[in-house]
Amino acid sequence: MSSTELRVSKIKEGTVIDHISGGYALDVVKILGITGKENRVMTIAINVPSKSLKVKDIVKIEGRAVKPREVNRIALIAPHATINIVRNYKVVKKLEVKLPKVIEEIIKCANPSCISNSNEPVSSKFYMEKKDPLLLSCHYCGSILEKSDVLSQF
Ligand SMILES: Nc1ncnc2c1ncn2[C@@H]1O[C@H](COP(=O)(O)OP(=O)(O)OP(=O)(O)O)[C@@H](O)[C@H]1O
Ligand SMILES: [Mg+2]
Ligand SMILES: [Zn+2]
Predict the structure, then answer these.
(1) pLDDT of residue 19
(2) From the CB of residue 121, how many other CB atoms can be counted at a distance below 10 Å?
(3) Distance CA 9, CA 19 (A)
């Protein structure tokens, strides 16, 4: 540990979400529905230096797994995130988030008159135009969604 680092408590069992794009940790916390009132140990690091990214955020949560639907949402705003499962203080599993070329159901089209927003039984469908910074195009109306449009839905 170098003199510029500060040691915080390790978590015993839980999840470490690492390599979150710098500045997006609080959005990840929001996706997880965590308010901070849950009586869990949680550590959030924002804009810390990273070897692979320039800066990164990290979220560490005791006693909590991350559901597949949450992982899919995290992938949209933090495409380089790594999900580490911690058991007995050790990382026992590491998952990289994946951004599929086609995204269905997890987000809504920003265009209110898009057929995917009507009463028709049509669920949303987007094509991944760009990963980072995020750009999605709607299969039905061609609307372009960026990261801020996606974040406002979480
Ligand atoms: N018990 C724990 N409590 C809190 N954080 C932990 C714990 N164990 C590991 N971590 C954190 O989880 C992340 C992944 O740990 P790991 O030991 O796999 O690091 P790494 O080798 O740097 O991984 P990567 O190659 O994914 O960057 C690191 O940010 C590490 O600090
Ligand atoms: Mg590392
Ligand atoms: Zn649309």
Answers:
(1) 97
(2) 5
(3) 19
What is the pTM (predicted TM-score) of this model?
Answer: 0.91
**Ligand 1 pocket, 124 CB below 6 A?**
no
The pLDDT value recorded for residue 61 is: 96
Gap between the Cα atoms of 103 and 137, Å rounded: 10
Whether ligand 1 lies within 6 angstroms of the CB of 18 is answered as yes
Q: Which ligand is nearest to the CA of 16?
A: 1
SS3 26: helix
Q: What is the mean pLDDT of residues 83-95?
A: 97
Pocket test for ligand 1, best of 84, 88, 94, 97 (most atoms within 8 A of CB): 84
Q: What is the pLDDT of residue 5?
A: 75
Is the CB–ligand 1 distance for residue 92 below 6 Å? Answer: no
User: Which domains, ranges and CATH numbers included, belong to the chain?
Assistant: 14-96 (3.30.70.140), 102-151 (2.30.30.20)
